From TrEMBL:
<dbReference type="GO" id="GO:0006427">
    <property type="term" value="P:histidyl-tRNA aminoacylation"/>
</dbReference>
<keyword id="KW-0547">Nucleotide-binding</keyword>
<feature type="domain" description="Aminoacyl-transfer RNA synthetases class-II family profile">
    <location>
        <begin position="31"/>
        <end position="382"/>
    </location>
</feature>
<dbReference type="InterPro" id="IPR036621">
    <property type="entry name" value="Anticodon-bd_dom_sf"/>
</dbReference>
<dbReference type="GO" id="GO:0005524">
    <property type="term" value="F:ATP binding"/>
</dbReference>
<dbReference type="InterPro" id="IPR045864">
    <property type="entry name" value="aa-tRNA-synth_II/BPL/LPL"/>
</dbReference>
<dbReference type="Pfam" id="PF13393">
    <property type="entry name" value="tRNA-synt_His"/>
</dbReference>
<keyword id="KW-0030">Aminoacyl-tRNA synthetase</keyword>
<feature type="binding site">
    <location>
        <position position="137"/>
    </location>
    <ligand>
        <name>L-histidine</name>
    </ligand>
</feature>
<dbReference type="GO" id="GO:0005737">
    <property type="term" value="C:cytoplasm"/>
</dbReference>
<protein>
    <recommendedName>
        <fullName>Histidine--tRNA ligase</fullName>
        <ecNumber>6.1.1.21</ecNumber>
    </recommendedName>
</protein>
<comment type="similarity">
    <text>Belongs to the class-II aminoacyl-tRNA synthetase family.</text>
</comment>
<feature type="binding site">
    <location>
        <begin position="89"/>
        <end position="91"/>
    </location>
    <ligand>
        <name>L-histidine</name>
    </ligand>
</feature>
<dbReference type="InterPro" id="IPR004154">
    <property type="entry name" value="Anticodon-bd"/>
</dbReference>
<feature type="binding site">
    <location>
        <begin position="307"/>
        <end position="308"/>
    </location>
    <ligand>
        <name>L-histidine</name>
    </ligand>
</feature>
<feature type="binding site">
    <location>
        <position position="119"/>
    </location>
    <ligand>
        <name>L-histidine</name>
    </ligand>
</feature>
<dbReference type="InterPro" id="IPR006195">
    <property type="entry name" value="aa-tRNA-synth_II"/>
</dbReference>
Length: 496
C-alpha cells in the first residue's frame, strides 16, 4: 500500500492573540467566577446574558467606516447588508438590552454578566484578541451612592478571592473634575477634543513615566530611551503647571482631605465643581461604611473609554511579584469602570444614568495564581477501569456504573491498546487509581485496584524490582463486591 502523502497536510496553528485553555485553567477560572458571582448576588445583582454579536452601530464609538470596516472590532455584513460586530466589551451590549427592554425592567436595574469580548487590535505581550470580562452595572440610579457601592463591591470581591487588605486599592476620580481642569486652562469646546484626549493619555502614564515624563507629554513631547519621540499636548507652561498641580493633589490624610485640597488649590470650571461634590459624597459614604482604608480618591485616575461621564474607578494590586525576566513587577490594574450616563440614552430620547465596573478575568487569575490562591494545574482525574478481556466489556462497564452511582468520577478505557498502554493512559489522565480484572481475577471473583499516586511515590523509594514485585505496596486485591469501598479508601488516603 502506498504511504499516505503528507506534503499537503493542513498545518495546525493557533491565530495570534488567541489562547487554548486546558482543563485545569478552565476549572480554576470557574471557581474564581463562582466566587465573584457570589459577591455580586450578595449585593442584590441578577445575571443577564447578551449575545456575542451586536449591530455595529450599537457599540457606540467603535463604528466601521468605509475604508476600515473592522477598525477596533471584528465586523461583517449580513445578507441585508447590515453591519454586525463581535462585542468589544460587555457594557455597550447591556446598554442596548436595557434600552430595548426598558419598560419591563425594574429601575434601578442591577445586573451582572461574564463572557468573552473581542478586540481587532495588534496582539502582543498581555494583549489578546479574545479575553473574558466579568461586569456588574446599575442602570437608572443617578446618585453617587451607586458609584460608591460599585467601589465597595469591587473591594469585597477582591478580598473574597483571597487578596489581603493592604495588597490592593480601589482608586477613584471623576471625569467632570478632569473636564473642569481642562476648562480652566482653555480646553473646553469640540475644537479642543483632540488636545483634551492627549492630556488624559499623558496623565494616565503617571505610573509608567513618573511626574517628569507626564510633564513632558503635557508640553512639547517626550523622547524615550530608544530615541522615539511622542508628540505632547502642546500646553503652555501655565497649563502644564495647573494639570501637574491637580495630579499631585492627593492627600495622605484621607479622602475628605484630598477633596478639600483640590477645592482650595486647583482652579477649575463649573463641571469640575459638580464632579468634586460627587467625589465628596463618595468619600463620605465609603468612610461611613468602613472602606476608607482601601478606597482612595486619586486625581491621576483617567480610564480609557470615552463614554465615561462622571466618577471613574480602578482596582489596582499593590503586591510585588517577578516578571518573565526575574525582575520585580506589579500586576497593576485588574479591573475598573465608571459612570456612563450617555450610553443607554443613545437609544432613547431621555437621559438614563448608569454606572458599573468590569473585572479582567485573565489578568486577575494570573495574579491569584502568583499568590498561590488558585492553581491551574491538572486536577485529579477519574478512576480508570481497564479492559483485559474484550468479550467482557459489559461487565467492565458495570464496574464503572457502580463507581459513578457512588459519586466517584470514573471512566471505561475505550481505546484499543493493551494493558501497559492502558496504565500509561490512566497516568496521563492523572487518575488516582485504576481497576484491573483479568481472567485469573475473574475466576477468583476478585478485582485489583492500583493506587497510582502511591505507586509513583514508592517508585522513587524502591529500586530493586524483586522487592517491588514482592511488596506490591500500591496494589490491593479485593472481592468484586468491595470495589467501591476499596476505591473510596484510596481516594480518602490521597486526600489526606
Amino acid at each position: 500500500m502506498a504511504e499516505k502523502d503528507k506534503t499537503n497536510a493542513l498545518k495546525a496553528r493557533l491565530p495570534r492573540g488567541l489562547v487554548d485553555r486546558h482543563a485545569g485553567a478552565i476549572k480554576a477560572a470557574d471557581r474564581m467566577l463562582a466566587t465573584i458571582r457570589g459577591v455580586y448576588e450578595l449585593y442584590g445583582f441578577e445575571p443577564v446574558e447578551t449575545p456575542l454579536i451586536e449591530y455595529t452601530d450599537s457599540l457606540g464609538k467603535f463604528l466601521p467606516d468605509q475604508d476600515r470596516p473592522n477598525e477596533g472590532v471584528f465586523s461583517f455584513q449580513d445578507d441585508d447588508e447590515q453591519w454586525l460586530s463581535l462585542r468589544y466589551d460587555l457594557t455597550a451590549p447591556l446598554a442596548r438590552y436595557v434600552a430595548e427592554n426598558y419598560d419591563q425592567l425594574p429601575k434601578p436595574y442591577r445586573s451582572y454578566r461574564n463572557g468573552w469580548v473581542f478586540r481587532n487590535e495588534k496582539p502582543g505581550p498581555g494583549r489578546f484578541r479574545q479575553f473574558m470580562q466579568f461586569d456588574a452595572d446599575t442602570v437608572g440610579a443617578a446618585s453617587p451612592a451607586a458609584d460608591a457601592e460599585m467601589c465597595m463591591m469591587m473591594a469585597d470581591t477582591i478580598e473574597a478571592l483571597g487578596i489581603s487588605r493592604g495588597d490592593y486599592v480601589i482608586r477613584v476620580n471623576n471625569r467632570k473634575v478632569l473636564d473642569g481642569v481642562m476648562e480652566a486652562i482653555g480646553l473646553s469646546g469640540a475644537e479642543h477634543a483632540g488636545t483634551r484626549l492627549t492630556v488624559l493619555r499623558a496623565i494616565d502614564k503617571l505610573d509608567k513615566f513618573g511626574p517628569e515624563g507626564v510633564q513632558l507629554l503635557l508640553g512639547a513631547g517626550r523622547k524615550d530611551e530608544s530615541g522615539d519621540f511622542t508628540k505632547g499636548a502642546g500646553l503652555d507652561d501655565a497649563g502644564v503647571a495647573t494639570v501637574m498641580k491637580y495630579v499631585a493633589a492627593q492627600s495622605s490624610v484621607g479622602n475628605e482631605a484630598t477633596v478639600e485640597s483640590i477645592r482650595q488649590n486647583i482652579e477649575m470650571g463649573p463641571s469640575g465643581v459638580e464632579g468634586l461634590n460627587e467625589l465628596d459624597q463618595i468619600a463620605v459614604i465609603t468612610t461611613a461604611a468602613g472602606y476608607a482604608d482601601r478606597i482612595k480618591i486619586d486625581p491621576s485616575v483617567v480610564r480609557g473609554l470615552e463614554y465615561y461621564t462622571g466618577p471613574v474607578f480602578e482596582a489596582e494590586l499593590l503586591f510585588e511579584t517577578v516578571n518573565e525576566k526575574g525582575e520585580p513587577a506589579r500586576f497593576g490594574s485588574v479591573g475598573g469602570g465608571g459612570r456612563y450616563d450617555g450610553l443607554v440614552g443613545r437609544f432613547r430620547n431621555e437621559a438614563v444614568p448608569a454606572t458599573g465596573f468590569s473585572i479582567g478575568v485573565s489578568r486577575l487569575m494570573a495574579a491569584l495564581t502568583a499568590l498561590g490562591k488558585i492553581s491551574a494545574e491538572a486536577e485529579v482525574g477519574p478512576v480508570v477501569v481497564t479492559i483485559f478481556d474484550r468479550d467482557r466489556v459489559g461487565e467492565y462497564q458495570k464496574m464503572v456504573k457502580d463507581l459513578r452511582d457512588a459519586g466517584i468520577r470514573a471512566e471505561l478505557y475505550l481505546g484499543g491498546s493493551g494493558p501497559k498502554a492502558q496504565l500509561k493512559y490512566a497516568d496521563k489522565r492523572n487518575s488516582p487509581c485504576v481497576v484491573i480484572q483479568g481472567g485469573d481475577e475473574k475466576a477468583k471473583g476478585v478485582i485489583q485496584v492500583k493506587d497510582l499516586v502511591l505507586g509513583k511515590q514508592m517508585s522513587t523509594e524502591i529500586t530493586d524490582n524483586a522487592v517491588w514485585r514482592e511488596a506490591r505496596p500500591a496494589q490491593v486485591e479485593v472481592p468484586e463486591a468491595d470495589l467501591v469501598a476499596a476505591v473510596r479508601e484510596i481516594l480518602a488516603r490521597q486526600a489526606g
